Predict the structure.
Amino acid sequence: MGLFGKSDKEKAEELWESAVAKSTKNDRQGAAEDLTRIIAITPNAHKMYYHRGNEYYSLNLFDKAIKDFQTALDFEPNNDKYILCVASCKRQIGDIKGAYRDYSRAIKINPNNPHLWHNRGHIKRYAMDATGARQDFEIAVTLGDNNSRKWVEVCSAFNSAKSLDDYIDLVSLNVDELINEGINHNSQGNWQKA
C-alpha cells in the first residue's frame, strides 16, 4: 500500500476479481457495476468494455452492450470477436441488415470462426435464403460447429416445403429462439485478464 492508499492498479485488480466472482454467480448487474468502476479508473482498458458489454448482453440491455462493444472496437477495429458481439446485439434488436453486414465483415477478417458462419446462416434463414443459409451452416460444420448440422438439415427441408405455411414453420422467427440462439452462439464469458 502506498502513502495515499491503494494504487489504481490495485483497485482495478480487486474490482476485476469481484466482477469475475459476481459474473460466475450470475450477478450480471453487480459485475457490470464493478466493470464500470474499473473503466472509470482505467478508461483505456478496452477489454473491460468488452466484458461489460457481455454483462449487458446477458441482461438484455442490447443498446448498452452495442455501445461497449463499439468502444472496444475503437481500440481494435479488426477484432472479429468484438464485431461478432455487435452483430449479435443487432440481431437481438431486429437490425437484421446491420447484423448481416457485421457478420460478413467479421468473416472477411476471420473466415475460420464457425460462430460467424453459423450466425450469418441464421440471418440468411430469416431472409428466406435457404440455399445461402445452408451454405453458411455447412461451412460452420466443416469448421467444427456441430450445432450447425441441425440447421443444414432444416435448410435442406426448405426444398421439400409444399406450401407457404410449411416454409414459415421451417423459418421460425420466434423472439425466444432469436435470443436463445444469440446467447448460445455469442462469444461470451471469456474472462481473461486484460
In short: Residues 20 and 191 are 7 Å apart (CA to CA). The mean pLDDT is 85. The chain is about 75% helix and 0% strand.
